[in-house]
Amino acid sequence: MSGVDKAKNKAEKVAGKAKEKFGAATDDKDKKHEGKVDQAKSDLKDAGEKVKDAFRH
Fold it and tell me: Which ranges in the chain belong to alpha helices (H)?
């Protein structure tokens, strides 16, 4: 996994957590759900990158 991809995925996960917390604080269920989805996408991207790395080595 390249450092750039890793940083992008980490940033997406942090942004997702922020959205989730903001949604919880403002009682905005859609925003809270959106944050959880962003975090899940980030986790899936990380997993995909790890699989690619495993086949490269």
Answer: 3-25, 29-56
Specify the pLDDT at position 49. Answer: 86
Residue keyed to tokens 């450092």: 3
The Cβ of residue 16 has, within 10 Å, a number of other Cβ atoms equal to 20
CA 54/CA 49 separation, integer angstroms: 9
CA 19 distance to own-chain centroid: 11
DSSP 21-37: HHHHHTT-HHHHHHHHH
pLDDT along the chain (57 residues), means of 10: 83 96 97 97 91 83
